[in-house]
TrEMBL record:
This is Acryloyl-CoA reductase. Coiled coil: none annotated. The lineage of its organism: Bacteria, Pseudomonadati, Pseudomonadota, Alphaproteobacteria, Hyphomicrobiales. Pfam families: ADH_N, ADH_zinc_N. InterPro entries: Acrylyl-CoA_reductase_AcuI, ADH-like_C, ADH-like_N, ER, GroES-like_sf, NAD(P)-bd_dom_sf, Zn-ADH-like_protein. Gene3D superfamilies: Medium-chain alcohol dehydrogenases, catalytic domain (3.90.180.10), NAD(P)-binding Rossmann-like Domain (3.40.50.720). It comes from the Bacteria. It comes from Devosia elaeis.
Length: 329
């Protein structure tokens, strides 16, 4: 049986490039469940894998795609049978294991999550790793005592995938999400999603730096790291909490202990990749009940496999708005 895949290869000159090829099932990697992939997602990490940046992919030829949703075609694992609707995110699929940029994938059953009622495979990829991570971050802030009554929650990298879904979920849960974005042209869209205020990236970074700054945020969901996380931490209110998700703006974090020892602020890391199964199932279920897919529709762009290399360059340049999803059928 043959299927289409976006195969990423490394040339003798070290250059990484991708092209659509027809493959047969015998090329699929080891695994006990074969899935007919219907939709995949585009994430920042996919941009790295498709361009060879960051050294995430070690073995070529490779099929990237860190998340996908589809229908089980064949299963040697008793938890799944042909016809089941499944979603996969993380576990380094698309990095060290072949991923979702193909009409067929073979994976380990432990990595799959059954799709909850209320989400189809396209919906699941609008959410994708981005939405799952946003939900996990909100769960974490709540576990650390942040409630809708605590006050505003700052979301950085707000016009990106994780940020925009975090804004939408927070608003639906009764929070006051404030969007920090470097792209003022998306302010109206972010407000429609539920942002109660917009903070411009330049304005934010342009304010004088102090060791501790005026306290404004009950919670912080940070997708960019670097100077933005450093500054935002100094503005978290007494007893507040910050969830560190991403490094779109850099991996450095220069800070001081005052937010932690004078305001009791907690900085907590979120990793969606190795997240235990039970947490994933709970998060997907909460997403299915909470996420307003209709309100998010304007932030979804569909591409085919052949358009992915261009889309990858755009996401690395911070030019993608919301979620880009990949049509496989
Ligand atoms: P996107 O590219 O969709 O969004 C990132 C956003 O960050 C951009 O839209 C932009 O927002 C902002 N940004 C980009 N470059 C810069 C910069 N140089 N300085 C400041 N802000 C910048 O990516 P995702 O939403 O998919 O992912 C966000 C981050 O989270 C990435 O670093 C990703 O690797 C990480 N991530 C981590 C996960 C985990 O498990 N911990 C899971 C998923 C993602 P704007 O234009 O609004 O300013």
């Amino acid at each position: 049986m043959s299927f289409q895949a976006l195969v990423t290869s490394k040339g003798d000159d070290g250059k990484v490039s991708s092209s659509v090829e027809t493959l047969t099932d015998d090329r699929l990697p080891e695994g006990n469940v074969t899935v007919d992939v219907e939709w995949a997602g585009l994430n920042y990490k996919d941009g790295l894998c498709l361009t060879g940046a960051g050294g995430l992919v070690r073995t070529y030829p490779h099929v990237a795609g860190i998340d996908f949703a589809g229908i089980v075609r064949e299963s040697q694992d008793q938890r799944y049978k042909a016809g089941d609707r499944v979603v996969l995110t993380g576990w380094r699929v698309g990095e060290v294991h072949w991923g979702g940029y193909a009409q067929r994938a073979r994976v380990n059953a432990d990595w799959l999550v059954p799709l909850p009622d209320g989400l189809d495979t396209r919906d699941a990829m609008i959410v994708g790793t981005a939405g799952l991570t946003a939900m996990l971050a909100i769960d974490r802030l709540e576990n650390l005592g942040v409630t809708p009554e605590s006050g505003e929650v700052l979301v950085t990298g707000a016009a990106g995938g994780v940020g925009s879904i975090a804004i939408s979920l927070l608003a639906r849960l009764g929070y006051q999400p404030v969007a920090l974005s470097g792209r003022p042209e998306h302010s109206a869209t972010l407000k429609e999603l539920g942002a109660t205020d917009i903070v411009g990236r330049e304005d934010f970074l342009g304010q004088p730096d102090k060791v501790l700054e005026s306290a404004r945020w009950a919670g912080l969901i940070d997708n960019v790291g670097g100077k933005i996380l450093s500054k935002a931490l100094k503005q978290v209110k007494y007893g507040g909490a910050a969830a560190a998700i991403g490094n779109a703006g850099g991996i450095d974090l220069e800070t001081n202990v005052l937010p932690f020892i004078l305001r009791g602020v907690t900085l907590s890391g979120i990793d969606s990749v190795m997240q235990p199964y039970a947490n994933r199932v709970a998060a997907w279920s909460r997403i299915a009940k909470t996420f307003d897919l209709a309100a998010y529709a304007a932030l979804v762009e569909e591409v085919g496999l052949a358009e992915l290399p261009d889309a990858a360059a755009k996401i690395l340049a911070g030019q993608v708005r919301g979620r880009t999803i990949v049509r496989l059928r």
